[in-house]
Design goal:
Layout: E1 2-11, H1 15-26, E2 31-34, H2 39-44, E3 50-51, H3 53-61, H4 66-71, E4 73-75, E5 77-82, E6 85-90, H5 91-94, E7 100-102, H6 105-119, E8 123-124, E9 127-133, E10 141-146, E11 149-160, H7 167-170, E12 179-183, E13 187-194, E14 203-207, E15 210-216, E16 221-228, H8 239-249, E17 262-269, E18 272-276, E19 280-281, E20 284-286, E21 292-293, H9 301-322, H10 326-329, H11 331-353, H12 362-376, H13 378-389
Parallel strand pairs: 1-2, 1-11, 2-8, 5-14, 11-20
Antiparallel strand pairs: 3-7, 4-7, 5-6, 9-10, 10-11, 12-18, 13-16, 13-17, 14-15, 15-16, 18-21, 19-20
Helix pairs in contact: 1-6, 1-9, 9-11, 12-13
Length: 396
C-alpha cells in the first residue's frame, strides 16, 4: 500500500477540482487530485462551454488564458428568435462592456490539467473504488486503487469535486444533507455537425415546435440543440429528421435558414435543477456538480463550479496559511448565494424558452408576452444580460 500525506486532497478532475488545485498549489499549499477517469477520456469528452465574463477575467489573471484567448469565440451578444423574428441582446451595451466566450469545457480541462502538471500537482488518473473516511475528524483519509496498487491519502481537508454521481456527497450522512431537485419533462437533442457557422452569435429560439439553441465550435464544426423527449434514443433520428426539426424551430419571416452538414455526433442531455445546500460537513467541502446541477439553458454549470473553487480556495488559503477559520466556517453560506442565483436564472431561461408537454396553452401566451417585453424594454433586457454575463464571485 502506498501512503501519502497532503494538506488538501481533491477528488475529481473537473473544472472545480482542477482550478482549486491550481490556485492552492501556486499559493504554496500542498495538494493532490484523485480522478476516476483517464486523462485521455477527460480531454476528449466533448462538452459545451460558455464562459462568463468573471470566469474569463479570472483565467487571464491566473495565467490560464493564453489558449482560451487565442481559440475561444468572443460573443458580445446573443439573439432571441421567436414569432418569426430575430432580436439581438447586446451584452456589452447592456452590461458596461462585459461579454461571454464560447470555449468548450473539455478545452478548459486540457488547459487546467497541463497547468497543474506543470506546477507539480500530482493527479492520480483512473482511480478506482474511491472511499472517504473519518471526514468528521482532523485527519480524514481517502482510499483508492490505481492499477493494482492501493493508496491511502491522509489529509487535513477534502474537496469533493467529483460530480453528481461521485462518492463525496454520499459521504455526508443523508439526514444531514439538505437537497432540492426539479426534473424537467424535456431534454436537449444535441448534435455536432460539419458545416459553416449559421450565425455570428448564439441563437436561442422559441417556437411552437419547441426550443433550439444554435451555437458554434470552429469555422467548420457547429453545435446545435433542439428540445426532445428525455427518454428518446438518438438512433431513432436520421440526419434529415434532425435538420427538419432544427429548421422548424428557427423558421422566420426573412427566409434565413441554418447551414446544414454531416452530423458527426448525437446525444441527449437531461434537464434538471439540483442543489445540495449542505456543501460542507466536517473536513469535507463540496464544489461544482457534486453540490449542484443546472439545466444548460442559462450556461451556468461550468461557471458555478469556478465560483465554488474561488470561494473555497480563498477560505482554505486563509485557514492553512493564516490560521483564520472564518472563511471555511461560512463556505456553504457564501458559495450557495451565487449557486441559487445561477439556478434561478437557468430555471427562468428554461421556462421562458421551452414548451412543456401537457401544460395549459396559456403558458405559451405568457412566454411570448415576456419575450416581447425583453426585446422592447431596455431594463428587462439589461436584467437578462446582467445574469447571462455572470455576477461577481462571492468573497469568503
Amino acid at each position: 500500500m502506498n501512503a501519502h500525506r497532503t494538506k488538501v486532497c481533491i477528488i475529481g478532475a473537473g473544472p472545480a477540482g482542477l482550478l482549486l488545485a491550481f490556485i492552492l498549489k501556486t499559493s504554496g499549499i500542498d495538494c493532490l487530485v484523485v480522478e476516476r477517469q483517464s486523462r485521455e477520456t477527460l480531454e476528449k469528452t466533448i462538452k459545451a462551454g460558455v464562459l462568463e465574463h468573471p470566469t474569463i477575467e479570472l483565467f487571464k489573471q491566473l495565467g490560464l488564458g493564453d489558449r482560451m484567448m487565442q481559440d475561444g469565440a468572443f460573443h458580445h451578444g446573443f439573439e432571441l428568435a421567436f414569432g418569426g423574428q430575430r432580436h439581438r441582446i447586446d451584452l456589452m451595451d447592456l452590461t458596461d462592456g462585459k461579454y461571454i466566450m464560447v470555449y468548450p469545457q473539455h478545452e478548459v480541462i486540457k488547459d487546467l490539467i497541463a497547468a497543474n502538471l506543470a506546477a507539480g500537482t500530482p493527479i492520480y488518473f483512473e482511480a478506482k473504488n474511491v472511499m472517504l473516511n473519518d471526514i468528521s475528524t482532523s485527519q480524514p483519509t481517502v482510499h483508492f486503487k490505481q492499477a493494482e496498487t492501493d493508496f491511502v491519502i491522509t489529509t487535513d481537508f477534502i474537496a469533493g469535486c467529483d460530480g453528481y454521481h461521485g462518492p463525496s456527497r454520499q459521504a455526508i450522512p443523508a439526514d444531514q444533507r439538505r437537497e432540492f431537485t426539479r426534473i424537467y419533462p424535456c431534454g436537449w437533442f444535441g448534435i455536432l455537425c460539419e458545416a459553416e457557422p449559421s450565425a455570428d452569435e448564439l441563437i436561442y429560439a422559441q417556437s411552437d415546435h419547441g426550443f433550439a439553441l444554435i451555437s458554434t465550435r470552429t469555422p467548420t464544426v457547429q453545435r446545435m440543440y433542439f428540445q426532445c423527449d428525455p427518454n428518446d434514443d438518438v438512433t431513432n433520428w436520421t440526419d434529415d429528421q434532425i435538420w427538419d426539426a432544427l429548421q422548424k424551430c428557427v423558421h422566420n419571416e426573412t427566409g434565413w435558414r441554418l447551414k446544414e452538414g454531416k452530423v458527426i455526433q448525437k446525444n441527449i442531455v437531461a434537464m434538471r435543477n439540483f442543489v445540495c445546500e449542505t456543501m460542507q460537513f466536517g473536513r469535507l467541502f463540496l464544489a461544482g456538480d457534486a453540490a449542484h446541477i443546472v439545466p444548460p439553458t442559462g450556461a451556468k454549470g461550468l461557471n458555478l463550479a469556478v465560483g465554488d473553487a474561488v470561494v473555497l480556495s480563498r477560505a482554505l488559503i486563509e485557514r492553512i496559511m493564516h490560521d483564520d477559520e472564518e472563511g471555511l466556517k461560512h463556505y456553504s453560506e457564501m458559495a450557495i448565494k451565487r449557486v441559487w442565483r445561477g439556478e434561478q436564472f437557468s430555471s427562468w431561461m428554461t421556462d421562458l424558452l421551452h414548451d412543456f408537454k401537457g401544460e395549459d396553452p396559456i403558458h405559451r401566451k405568457f412566454r411570448r408576452a415576456q419575450l416581447e417585453q425583453i426585446v422592447s424594454s431596455r431594463s428587462a433586457a439589461a436584467s437578462m444580460a446582467e445574469n447571462y454575463v455572470g455576477v461577481p464571485f462571492a468573497r469568503a
